[in-house]
Write a structure and sequence with these properties.
alpha/beta; globular; single chain; seven-stranded mixed β-sheet; Aspartate Aminotransferase, domain 2; five-stranded mixed β-sheet; binds pyridoxal-5'-phosphate; Aspartate Aminotransferase, domain 1; about 15% strand
């Protein structure tokens, strides 16, 4: 008798319309129109521009992108538009809302780079999340990244949703660091949610993708139409890899979240034994009440540490066995990045850690030896 999880994956196999267990990759860029001439309707005569269901050109949509969006709609309960990267999703969100002012504080440097393009080209005004929100007007944007890159600490979504809505502005939440099932920003007032699906949705460090999620079918249609013109649809191979990944999203993310929290607790409990370890940042070390509701199943699998000197930070990655020294996050393999390699703004003593699905005791042991700590692992009951 197969177990529940086996049935969850195989229970509907007999209903598949084609024998392939994995949907084939459709590489066509163009698709034949209706063969019956009487059924052909000029685009100018159509009441509604049909965007999904009958692919005709892959810049609009194709079978694999539609499979990604449909499966994520089932996961999130909302409308999902997939993009070629997280940054193209953020660019699409700005194009859609077309704000005059954006409030955006800490967050991914690439999103800040896009805001700078908009300041340069369109005169967008950029204020901080701590600035006076009376500068925001109807239709402007508050962009909140939570948990935030690179620290993995939380901001209160409801607080910023209320502040944005008081001014008639919209709240976009970049939830890349807390994918489903860890966080649902719509529950706390977000108007649009974005993800770099390159990270946890992809989960294997082998694809680039982005997502915008909206509750409104009209906004979904507008986003898809803009995407057609901007040429930023997700490609077929990436869609296919993403479909593969989505099947294990929950398994991976819950495991990564639990392991990251155990590793952070271990480092924090034993901090005095690691003389070079100056600071640890993670949502699990915050005690604000709202976090229990906002992140009910656990914390981000990403956290950061600071060492006492720049040199110590630069050398730590090379001492680790199970953490690749590389940028990005969210994959099944643990990564560490001396963040100064890719982010100009960050302290040169900071290292960002993305915890994978390896055995957590191996990860703890690896960190212990790399930090040169005097902790005798065998004497610790690793109930972490
Ligand atoms: C929080 C966050 N948002 C957006 C992005 C951009 O995503 P992509 O690299 O898929 O364009 C990243 C990338 O690291 C990120 O960490």
């Amino acid at each position: 008798m197969p177990g529940l999880s086996t049935n969850l994956i195989h229970g509907a196999d007999h209903l598949h319309r084609v024998p392939d267990v994995v949907p084939p990759i459709n590489i066509a860029s163009t698709f034949r129109y209706e063969s019956d001439p009487d059924k052909l309707i000029k685009v100018a005569d159509r009441e509604k521009f049909e965007i999904l269901g009958t692919p005709y050109y892959s810049r609009l949509s194709h079978p694999n992108s539609e499979q990604v969006e449909a499966s994520l709609e089932a996961v999130t309960g909302h409308h999902v538009v997939a993009y070629s990267s997280g940054l193209s999703a953020f660019y699409a969100a700005l194009t859609h809302f077309n704000p005059k002012v954006i409030a955006f504080g800490k967050g991914y440097h690439g999103c800040h780079g896009i805001v700078q393009i908009w300041e340069r080209n369109y005169g967008l005004k950029h204020i901080d999340l701590d600035d006076d929100f009376s500068q925001l007007n109807k239709g402007d944007i508050v962009h909140l990244e939570t948990p935030v890159n690179p620290e993995g600490i939380n901001f209160n979504i409801k607080y910023y949703a209320d502040k944005a809505h008081e001014r008639g502005a919209y709240l976009i939440v970049d939830s890349t660091f807390a994918p489903p099932p860890l966080q649902d920003p719509f529950k706390f007032g977000a108007d649009m949610v974005m993800h770099s699906a390159t990270k946890f949705f992809g989960g294997h460090s082998d694809l680039l993708a982005g997502l915008l999620i909206t509750k409104s079918p009209e906004i979904r249609d507008k986003l898809v139409y803009d995407r057609l013109l901007l040429g930023t649809n997700i490609a077929s191979l990436e869609s296919s890899l993403l479909i593969r990944s989505i099947r294990t999203l929950e398994l991976r993310v819950l495991r990564q979240s639990e392991s990251a929290t155990k590793l952070v607790k271990y480092l924090s409990d034993n901090k005095s034994k690691f003389p070079s370890l100056a600071k640890i940042y993670h949502g699990s070390l915050q005690d604000d009440e709202y976090i229990k509701e906002q992140m009910p199943l656990g914390h981000s699998p990403v956290f950061s540490i600071e060492l006492d000197t720049e040199d110590a930070a630069k050398r730590l990655p090379s001492k680790l066995k199970y953490f690749h020294h590389a940028t990005s996050l969210g994959g099944v393999e643990s990564l560490i990045e001396w963040r100064a390699m890719s982010d100009k703004e960050v302290s040169p003593t900071l290292l960002r850690v993305s915890v994978g699905v390896e055995n957590v005791e191996d990860l703890i042991e690896d960190f212990t030896q790399a930090l040169g700590g005097s902790v005798d692992i065998s004497k610790l009951s690793l109930k972490y």
